[in-house]
Amino acid sequence: MMSNLDRMRSRIRKAGSVRTKLTLIIFIVAILPVCTLGFFSYHRSSKVVNEQFGSYGMYAVDQLKLHVDSNLRQMDQITGNILSYLIASSILVEDKAPSTFEQFVEERDFQNYISSLENSNIFNIAVITPSERVIGKNLINEESLTNSQFWSIESLNNDRHVMIHIPDYYSVPSNDYMISLLVPLKNSFGLPMGSKLLIDMKADTILSLIKSFERDTKSHLQIKDASGHSLLPTSSDYTSQHNDIVWSRSLDTEDWVVEARVPYATFYESSTVILKYSVFISGLAVFLGVIMASFFSIRFTMPIKKLAHSMRRFGEGDLLIRTPVMSSDELGFLSEAFNKMTEQIVELVNEISQTEKLKSDAELKILHYQINPHLLFNTLNSIQWKAKLAYQPEIQKMLQHLIVVLDGSFNFKQTLLPLTKEIEIARHFIEIQRFRYDDVFTFNLEVQPGLEHCLIPRMVFQPLLENIFFHGFRDGHGNIDMKIFEEKNKLYMVLEDDGMGVKTEHMKFIGSGQKVPNKQGGLGLRNVDERFKLHYGDVYGLSIESDRNKGTKVTLTWPKTVEIHSQSKF
């Protein structure tokens, strides 16, 4: 057998040597020239493509900048025409509706004049008096203007201002963006002192240019003010990166910047395609060379590689892996033996897993299922109604709290509960104890916000609280502090009392989960600890610290898991 293995190792070494030699020869003769040619062709072609793309992008930004400048100049020209008209004419418009026919005619002539300045781009021109009276076409709703967020801010501005926004003061609401020019008329010119000229120009042409540019270049184009804020958001959802290709131009009429950002990957996409083809051709040549060099040796090395691969996969946990039997010699025998061995191991693992599952299910059922609750609930409900009919409210309330606690204890269908429900059961248990002991004890609860939907095994707080009243307090006298918080994706419940505490000689039994000899009780703590370990593993569960006649501190630890699609609250 050893001689066969030695021959096999020698054959593999020889095959590997031949494969290496053939690969080097083919690489030198064929692959190196192909790779060299691909490198130079890629470098030259990508340079030309990127230069053309950059020139097109800068040209498009220049055109948009010229268009915006042209629109703003047109609005300034209209402003100058209106001011010239007011200076040349002798009209007198008051800050209220005309009271005489002469005033009505003057105001009508002024309205006709500013309406004549409107065109396909200029949507509306209006003069707004200090009392927010609108002089112009009846497009602006005065009430909407008064309530407008735009006007509440801009009415306080005493300087010329241009903005791009969606107006909210028109009689017919619209979602179209407009360029608004607001000019305070510092000299009255026949108008009420403090009046302002408002010119609204449609921005649909600008938006169309932006969207067309973004669609063609897969970029993000925006208009920014001097502080860098975007004035005209577009449909593109884009987050700028430090390596973006940026084209920008400053406007001549306003302190605005037209900026286009193209992702680095998008800008060099054409170069990447060329590179991919070059790499593909070089890779194909390498692949063919490797195939030719490996053709003869692969017939001998493949069975060993298959077996080694299967063994490695099996060691990583893939228990269903099987190695193909490719021959009837010693390698075939090894493959068959490996397959039989894996089948036997899988059968053993399945048997152990099934046994452990049955064991865990049995333990959980033993811990949860102690009595049939159906008869108990019916009986308690009957007693509750009897107490209500007998006008015994305290008995009725005590039974209500008891029913909630028992319902949580016997709800076998739900192994894990939201933390808020488990706390609710604990509160009901505390109320039962108040009926029993009156107000001789205090109970303080602190829960870190945001943990409402975290899951916890049901009925774990009540046994811990019950242990305090039955073993820690004397006649119910004492203080209880309960805190629930998160730390490093783990949840902690710390329960402290100032009761009798646990004797030192008993702590070693309780800490190891054993029953204290010749003592009753202790099942609640052990059951809670075992349930947590069954659900989450041995690293989680209870830890207990206690000083005799000073009190006990119980810490409960479990991993944070969240209930999905729950609307429950504390």
TrEMBL record:
Q: Does the keyword NAD apply?
A: no
Q: What is its main location?
A: membrane
Cellular component terms (Gene Ontology)? plasma membrane
Q: Where are the transmembrane segments?
A: 21-42, 277-302
Q: Which residues form a coiled coil?
A: 338-365
Q: Name the source organism.
A: Paenibacillus anaericanus
Any one GO MF annotation of this record: phosphorelay sensor kinase activity
By its UniProt entry, which SUPFAM superfamilies does this protein fall under? ATPase domain of HSP90 chaperone/DNA topoisomerase II/histidine kinase, HAMP domain-like
Where is this gene product found? Cell membrane
Q: How does it sit in the membrane?
A: Multi-pass membrane protein
Organism's domain of life? Answer: Bacteria
InterPro entries in alphabetical order? Bact_2-comp_sensor_kinase, HAMP_dom, HATPase_C_sf, HATPase_dom, Sig_transdc_His_kin_internal
Domain HAMP, first and last residues per copy? 298-350
Q: Which SMART domains does its entry note?
A: HAMP (SM00304)
Entry protein name = Sensor histidine kinase
Its keywords, alphabetically, are: Cell membrane, Coiled coil, Kinase, Membrane, Phosphoprotein, Transferase, Transmembrane, Transmembrane helix
